[in-house]
Design a protein that fits this description.
alpha/beta, 2 domains, five-stranded mixed sheet, two-stranded antiparallel ribbon, 7 helices
Length: about 260
Amino acid sequence: MAVRRIITIDEEKCDGCGVCVPACAEGAIQITGGKARLVSETYCDGLGACLGECPQDAIHLEEREAADYDEGAVENHLNKLKAASSPIASLPNPELQQIHAGHSCPGSAMRTFGVPAATAAAAEIVTGAQQQSQLRNWPVQLYLAPTRAPYFDNADLLIAADCVPFALADFHGQFLAGKTLLIGCPKLDNVELYLNKLAEIFSSNEIKSVEIAFMEVPCCFGLMQIVQKAIQMAQKDIPVELVKIGLRGEILEKRIVQ
């Protein structure tokens, strides 16, 4: 083995946010056991495109003995990742894959909900009264969402970490009214799938704006990185507002980031 430049990951600093995963075009980094890890030395080209993406400064380049970079192995690896990230292929057995492919599952069927004009604005909390749901689209899980749908046309898109509605008491009233919703978890879900799907959604639809609601925990910050990179991949200019939510539901920060 020759001495060459290759990444090293400080596991003590790494919080497993996953931001570095889509930043590596060779797929050399994956989240395993809650930490970012180098999958194989042969996949790392040593150029360090992932260095500036880590919010914890846990990734660096070092000179050491390492296996040579193998472009052919990288291509095979990326093809396997692409196949594995397919929502259908990742289902646990062929029977479920067939059902999903045939759109036989009513839970993942695309729907659009009408919201009465009188309740389109943020609803006030009324003691003892049931609030009107502001949800306008289904499915909301990014993993299941189509890349092209009528509710994406000229939409104000709300992309929320899936813990946000549980922490924020008036999620519908403060955030959801008039918006198309997508939810996901940048810590536990397939980051590469989310990145590619969002890039396709931004490419295939005219999105007016994006609001990202995420929790204050460090791993949740990765959601902003995924969305911004997807917009860049789609070569679109879309205004993005970032909203950080505290664990008790308070709004900690609101700012325009793009």
